[in-house]
Write a structure and sequence with these properties.
2 helices, two-stranded antiparallel sheet, 135 residues, elongated, alpha+beta, 3-stranded antiparallel sheet
Length: 135
């Protein structure tokens, strides 16, 4: 009886893992290698910020085309993986307000979640650039 219960539990878990990614092999970016992140314009649906688990600074996608860049904003670039999680080791600060460090932005980045980008129905990693209001 115990063996049957383990088999039933295992059978219930397999479909979940098998359907986590809808594609056997996700497409490679044009002029890129497999595993390279896509740029937003190369995706069918771009990665979209959905939430953070804290009150730390958050992306502000509504402020994309700011010129000149306000002094209290940072501009961060990073990769969002196929699970919608930003990859901390890819973080680059392109614009940094006075008093803000890369470590502070990395701490906030760990708590953000995105809806992953897709290409041909497959989840793909995407290079994201987003302004952050730093108060």
């Amino acid at each position: 009886m115990k063996m049957l219960s383990l088999f039933v539990v295992a059978a219930m878990l397999v479909p979940t893992a098998a359907h986590a990614q809808s594609c056997a092999t996700p497409p490679a970016p044009p002029n890129g290698t497999a595993g390279s992140p896509f740029f937003e314009f190369q995706t069918d649906k771009a990665a979209r910020y959905v939430r953070a688990d804290s009150l730390l600074p958050m992306p502000d996608p509504s402020r994309r085309a700011m010129q000149p860049f306000p002094p209290d904003f940072a501009l961060a670039q990073f990769v969002v993986d196929t699970a919608g999680v930003p990859v901390a080791r890819t973080l680059k600060l392109l614009v940094t307000p006075d008093g803000v460090t890369q470590a502070q932005v990395a701490t906030a980045l760990e708590r953000w979640r995105y809806e992953p980008a897709t290409v041909q129905g497959c989840r793909v990693s995407q290079l994201v650039q987003t302004p952050l209001r730093w108060k």
